């Protein structure tokens, strides 16, 4: 079984993907990490993020060991990721790795932006996880404050809106709901309720 989970930043897809993978004993790939690693490597090497040739070269030589990089989860890496993710050269270099991962036994949960539309269009289960920008910004702000960071809600909201616009507006594999995806709006749900709703979607499809 392949479960494809797509949606905008901070909608809860990462947590849901991990819990679904654990529940169904499937492999899990957070595909955002691939783009984050490429953005991070380019920034560390002083390369121009907007240069498709340089970005494509980094993507083609990406080593899975690079995914262990310490600061890939933060906001800055997310920002770098969405800038390199616009290049078709980058996206095409990552297709084979993601598809091979998905095909490996016993199956996998992949989360990202284009899993149901471009990477695994034949996935048995597709879930588009979303929430209002305000709810996502509130969650992200609370998460960062819980870690002791002094962050401003309005600024986080602006970053989320900017990332949504870039991810949805790019011409190469933009963020969009696959026609056969079930929509899971987590705006009014806590993580346990969202997980139950996701299980119900999976059970209805398999
Ligand atoms: O999901 P995450 O926040 O880690 O993704 C970081 C960025 O990487 C996204 O904003 C998006 O631009 C890009 N990305 C993508 N396709 C994916 C996963 C992530 O374009 N499958």
TrEMBL record:
Write out the similarity annotation.
Belongs to the cytidylate kinase family. Type 1 subfamily.
Known Gene3D superfamilies for this protein?
P-loop containing nucleotide triphosphate hydrolases
Give the gene symbol.
cmk
| Localization terms from the record | Cytoplasm
What this protein is called in its record is Cytidylate kinase
- Positions binding ATP in this chain are 7-15
Q: Which InterPro entries match?
A: Cytidylate_kin, Cytidylate_kinase_dom, P-loop_NTPase
Kindly give the Pfam families that the UniProt entry links to this protein.
Cytidylate_kin (PF02224)
The Cytidylate kinase domain is annotated at: 3-202
Family matches, as SUPFAM superfamilies: P-loop containing nucleoside triphosphate hydrolases
Record keywords = ATP-binding, Cytoplasm, Kinase, Nucleotide-binding, Transferase
The record ties this protein, via HAMAP family, to: Cytidyl_kinase_type1
Source domain of life is: Bacteria
CDD domains referenced in this protein's UniProt entry, alphabetically: CMPK
Recorded GO MF terms: kinase activity
Q: Which residues form a coiled coil?
A: none
EC numbers, comma separated: 2.7.4.25
- Catalytically driven reaction(s): dCMP + ATP = dCDP + ADP; CMP + ATP = CDP + ADP
